[in-house]
Structures
1.
Amino acid sequence: MRYAEHMSSPTLRERKRNRTRQALIDAGVELFERNGYDGTTVADIAEAADIGTRTFFGYFASKDELLFPDSARRVDVAITAIANRGPDDRPADVLLRALSDVAAPVGQPDDMLDRLARLRLRLIRTVPAVRGRALQVQVDAQRAIATHLARAYADELDDVTAAALVGAFVGAINGALMVLLADDEAADDPEHVRQRLRDATDVALRPWR
Amino acid sequence: MRYAEHMSSPTLRERKRNRTRQALIDAGVELFERNGYDGTTVADIAEAADIGTRTFFGYFASKDELLFPDSARRVDVAITAIANRGPDDRPADVLLRALSDVAAPVGQPDDMLDRLARLRLRLIRTVPAVRGRALQVQVDAQRAIATHLARAYADELDDVTAAALVGAFVGAINGALMVLLADDEAADDPEHVRQRLRDATDVALRPWR
DNA sequence: TGCGAGCTTGCAATAAGTGCGAGTTCACAC
DNA sequence: GTGTGAACTCGCACTTATTGCAAGCTCGCA
């Protein structure tokens, strides 16, 4: 088993593994910021984290995965939101709550998480490989969310319809973000982005609200 | 210039180029079908099409692009549908028409196009690199469509909202297809897929219709 | 304490993709 | 029809991601 099941006094091995994983992320962020994505080789990252190049791939299946270390947790957040739905919530309501929970910051403000998020956005905009990975991560998340939504509303949503619904909501957010983040200046003002995103999805998803 | 502008008696050079391009596609489809995506190297394809390996990359920027040779034309179809909108059409109406036009077959039934489409579907399901490329192509198309939609309804849609709207519709279709095509048996019955896709998007997009 | 699972790593190999530079071929203006 | 430059072809060398393998090390646990 590669992953801690349900944290209960992590063993030495697990602590070690987490530390190494984090070291890789830190090194990667640092180097990507300094030398760019293409200007940084996996070997560079491994060396900076003081492990063998070969070992890198024991932690991340590919160079770009380094930039999406918390994708699983995000899905969990959405799934939790679905599980905690109120008795009167319609699927669309639950979905909106779930997605806004995902967007919200997770815990205490974390410097590295913030740096990573910024860096990731920039690289998604500029590096095709990273953009591809981001889309990949997104559709995987969509699928998981759709499955849980269908299960939560088993009597009114089949799998396919649930997937269509989730796709519509995520697609709307995504489409808006794509344009919003396209120009560099505006992308750096998170409050502005949040506001315009809200406006756009309000209109695009109005028929549901 | 690499591409014919607006076909007017293609020059010899262009004819040659098209022929080579088509030969590459044919060879690629053939080899992918026979040996699988990972079992086929770019060098194999180039050799089968009787050109140098290096030259392959003058036609396609990457191995996976070979599988999406008609993406530009599809976007054109959607844009044309937007341009031909009726005076009473709402943005959502136009969008639905545009997207169904894109899905419709283009011209005469073409054996190779059909084979390519089938192959592509299978590889999207099974090869991450191809899936990534497909998503990439899709969001590019989304962006172009959103731009034109915003222009067509300049007085009621800004860029961001148009992108959100397009994202919602494309996302719904895409989400449904993802689940529908996930299992191999069902995916081979186009009529069944069409029907269930229609059902799912009817529900997911009902608020608009 | 000892064993088996899991981790680390070096080495070699494969394949995508790129820059370069020389040689061809074509479109087009004169 | 002739010359010229743009466009195309292609071999070569190189970088880099990614994988399989096998040897050696570490840790969890019975």
2.
Amino acid sequence: MLDINLIRQNPEKIKKGMVAKNVSSKLVDDFLALDEGWRKLTKEIDDLRAEQKKLSEVRKIEEAKKNKEKIKNAEIELNETEKRREEILRGLPNLPFDDAPVGKNESGNVVLREIGEKSKFGFEPKDYLEIVEKLDLIDTERAAKVSGSRFGYIKGQLVLLEFALVKLALDTAVKKGFIPIIPPVIIKEEMMRAMGYIDSHKDREETYFLEKDNSYLVATSEQSIGPMHSGEIFNENELPKRYIGFSTCFRREAGSYGKDTKGILRVHQFDKAEMFSFCEPEKSKEEHELLLSIEEDLMKLLKIPYRVLNICTGDLGGPAAKKYDIEAWLPGQNGGKGEYRETHSTSNCTDFQARRLNIKYRSSVRGQMSKVDFVHTLNGTAFAIGRMLIAIIENCQQKDGSILMPEVLRGYLGFKEIR
RNA sequence: GGAGGCGUGGCUGAGCGGUUUAAAGCAGCAUCCUGCUAAGAUGUUGAGGGAGCAAUCCUUCCGAAGGUUCGAAUCCUUCCGCCUCCGCCA
């Protein structure tokens, strides 16, 4: 949710941001008109209520009865206005930062750097699907029989690889002060809404909804970790509050028919280690860079080539002011020519989520009044397991069809190759 | 799933239809006192919205949303959360 005062004070700036995010600037005008009406009505009702109190104190019951009717009518009008005002406000996405490149869609994303040397295989690298089939590591056929398309059984040593990756992510983040956490994967509608993920019907179709419980399955643990501290006020010295969560993620992938239909690149269910930070507003840019640097460190530890993208305004999504994606190099894709595919993403959501979740912090400057303000929230992938498995399989494949495990994982694994 | 109980400020806790603009205590902060510390004294300490150049004023908030009433923390309805006992269960 955007800051109402900011919209009032600087509508042109907001409009510019909305347009960059592919949202009509007319909504801002609509909001301002409704807001003005709302303020008028609020004043009216405040005065009527003050009157009502006075009448009530001196037991002027008849007059109070009449006054009560006036209040009721005004309240009906206020509620109407408030509802429409809220609706528009909730629909407005977060403002992008100035250093998010302006662009309509993913073609506007900017490559910041490419890191790591793409392996020279000395043979034509295979698609991971071909490799896992020979080694019997993933079974999507039986998963389709049991669960439908876009599911998979992960088997054998690949399972151990998953847990090794999780352990590496946890250890790395814990060293930086992140608190490990396993969050609930079912969350209430209001929390999903507050995180900025179900504003439109389209969004709702992307998520699994449990009708009986009026709850959602999380698409990322961010949705469950963010609301943890809703309604709370942090002390300054508790920030930054950093979590590294591990959970299964559920996505309906309703809008991606026909895309990546084979294998486990795009599935309804996968596990993910996810970082989440609550921090002071002035420090969120720095925090964002920290999250990105941890993501990059993890990729470097595994020695997987990747590139970093600065996501453009049109591709940011609602809550983010700025977003970096990491795309891992997958040498077996594209018929052995290789391609980059997204494995990580980190967003600075500034106070957009905190505002709806009502998460604040108190800074106590000595001798001065303590200030209470919204925190900033950020999230970043540590490892999205399915896609990391793919990245490791394709980058570490050997001529004989075996997979040589990254050195950093061998201590966790107890073996050095899958064959 | 069955039965009962409970949600009040940073915390503890009174209030259960009208001086509650929420008592009291604790903790916090500021100042004073003191050689230092402790103790003590005094004052102060929430959030949202609106009006005003401002001092300030009005209003909302006692788990949430509705309702009853001239008047609700207090009564009613629904929901959410927590606790106790029973049942079931990894």
3.
Amino acid sequence: MRLSQNITKTLKNAPADEQAINAKLLIRAGFIHKEMAGAYSYLPLGLQVIENIKTVVREEMNALGASELLMTSLQAKDSWVLSGRWSDDLVDIWFKSQLKTGAEIGFGWSHEEPIMMMAKSLVKSYRDLPISVYQFQTKFRNELRAKSGVMRGREFIMKDMYAFSRSADELSEFYERTKDAYLRVYDRIGLGDNTFVTFASGGSFTQFSHEFQTVTDSGEDTIYLDRSKRLAVNEEVYSDEILAQLGMKKDHLEKVKAAEVGNIFNFGPIKGEQMDVYFSDQSGQRQPVYLSSYGIGISRLMGVIAEHFNDQNGLVWPINIAPAKVYLIAIGDSKAVSGADKLYNILTARGVAVIYDDRDVRPGEKFSDADLMGIPWRVVVSEQFIENGLYEIKSRLNNKLQQLNESNLIKLVEATTAKSNLHNKEIGKD
RNA sequence: CGGGGAUUGGCGCAGUUGGCUAGCGCGCCGCGUUUGGGACGCGGAGGCCGGAGGUUCGAGUCCUCUAUCCCCGACCA
């Protein structure tokens, strides 16, 4: 994109009404716009990050055999009454409204009940199972207190997947495969080293659910982490008995703050029984459908990454989710500008996302914005080098400067795609 | 929901014990000089001080109510 066409302008000062680092940086760099507490719009650069995260998640979910769909945000009361979860006493984060007729409706904070209603009409036979579906959806949760920028909002983007299985074993097999897929997701978006499978409350259905917790001081959860086992226990279920049950040793654990970036649940047959969702098995017997559900907070991930990868100059996006790979700047006369135009066209034609800073401002301002926006590679086309066919390329990660010709530059930029884990190690945090 | 803090041009802030046309920096517009780390000069535009009510000759400054935002706690499939 040409920066002159961007609706966003960077800010030198963060708004005073934001305390969270993720919100300060994302607003200053023009990635998000605050509408109200706990509700942020995604501006072009921020949306690109969201889409990049989605792409990684989508690839991993598709690889599991799940298919994408999109459900409604407006939800009928009936399905939730059926499960008992329409009650505000049980679920205290409901947003509700009503139709002109007076009929009550809810705004989806989860889609477990509606998807079960859907399954009820679509899944009839063991031949229809197992099956899994997922979506990227805006969820609404009427939190008493929104906080921490995009990390805990009242409206946010979530990937939720639902798997229907025929038995506990079948469910468990999918559950384990999904756990691995989740770990691949976090790895690919740069959080792999700091994200841990964590035992957490299973609610009323199973003893445990599994959370994926990213270690960060900005998180609101406390976990007890065994780094060598790469496993943790959430404080909410932490006790000597639980540790014994899980075979974890107390003296191997460290107590750390973490942000929940995923949560997966095993409902077993309970939800099916509760909501009357049955299938016919091979012998024609009625059996309850086994349900498991799998969530990843997409917009929260953007916040966690912003919290984790930044320095005094601004954001430092992992390569796989950066809104662009290259921040292109021309310095000097028309020769430099036409050189930059040409490189912009070449890279764009190759599918490399480029932010071309074609604004009529001084170089220093462009350098600052390149840093603030956290674009992995800064490429400068200047009079002094273009005559020899060289471009200057600088890494946002380590500030290393190189002069490369066109083909080497392309090689470098394209080679760094899909190496998010490298990024994570190099920045040396945690 | 309990406690604490805040609200003055787009952003960050200052506004003495109530006093005259509400200031500053950034940003924005115009002209000129600049051009490898957020340049400089000159000239402009833009706010009725979150909202409502009150006290007063006079309120951004005092009082009451209210809205919103931030933080701590509680809550958190």
4.
Amino acid sequence: MTELNYSFPPKLRLKKAAEFKNVFSNPVKSTDRYFTLLATQSDFDNPRVGLAIAKKIIRKAVHRNVIKRTIRESFRIQQYTMTGIDIVVLARKDALGASPDELRLSLEKHWLKLVSKCASC
RNA sequence: AGAGUCGGCUGAGCAGUCGCUGUUUUAUCGCAAGAUAGAAUGGAGGAAAGUCCGGGCUCCACUGGGCAGGGUGCCAGGUAACGCCUGGGAGGUGUAAACCUACGGAAAGUGCCACAGAAAAUAUACCGCCAUCGUCUUGUAAAAGACGAGGGUAAGGGUGAAAAGGUGCGGUAAGAGCGCACCGCGCAACUGGUAACAGGGGCGGCAUGGUAAACCCCACCCGGAGCAAGAUCAAAUAGAGGAAUAUACGCGUGGCCCGCGCGGUUCCUGGGUAGAUUGCUUGAGCUGCAAGGUGACUUGCAGCCUAGAUGAAUGGCUGCUCUCGACAGAACCCGGCUUAUAGGCCGACUUUUUCU
């Protein structure tokens, strides 16, 4: 068994507007009170993630940053449970008051759910 | 020791580990651009915030001009500039240290001033006060009283936020700057001060209610848009440029008017949207020392380089310590202002009590 590399290089991120558009156009959804996640199959072996934290929902820049970091960190740790899918994470209002631990638990469920959903489609 | 005023500083720390990102460097691959791996080193704030002012920078408009519009408003200085800062003056608050002030003009004009009140800016006579005249009553008379008439009065009452200088003495029929003293106000000069202004004396019997964050007047200042500015490289697709011609109409140019430009047609040339790169951090920079200045600040010398992301980094986990951690996240860059903020530290000063 080879040693796993838990890094988070740019190739694991969604960057271009077109890539985001692709996910939004035909997604598999997974929602709870903190997040809405959208996902589609991609042509890559590795999963990719993009963040869409609306200023309208999370007003303070500090809180936005905290949520983004939590999502990125969770994705970094869990990346090897997923295959080649593109994911966009949208924050909901309740994410503002939640503790980092609550967010982490929620996200871990989401990743697994999306993998199984995408495998069936 | 208590209470308080002002100014400044700080904004949890340490270790391990897994990540992100800039720079430098080494190795490998590659013609190159670059990619991958390793190492070293840097990586949010005092407000990074609100976007309220002022600049730099960039493009557009520059032939100016007029009319609008906006801003500022005691004086002097500082500054790239400011609505900021410093010093000073005036007024106000506080025992004091200190703090606060949208602090030009109301005898250029216009408007507004509710209710109450007789009257609210051309002053006015409701009650009251005063003498005069007429009639009546009482009285021997002098005179007193009642009623009425046309007058004189702003001292008293009452209304009001405000009643046309205030207080006192004289004066008077009663009163009144009618006269005088003090205070206030105004005027011209003098003295001190760069000035705002202050000062003491003189003259004037007093004329000018408030409101200019009401219009307005006066003085001074202001072109527009913003890094998604702009520049470069550039798929797909023909919306772009130049020349000639036309100037009726439409559109644009800072809001309008002059003025100016563009749109039409013909011919010629090729172009620059998605995306990428750049702009992007060496700057009115920071630190120290010296000099000048009451100070804001300026000058000189020496040293230093201190975030630069772009779906957007500066974090996660574990352990330990303490006073158990507030407000809060750079997005072109500076100077201010304003607002938010758990605590902790330092300095100067005021005042009260006790002790010496």
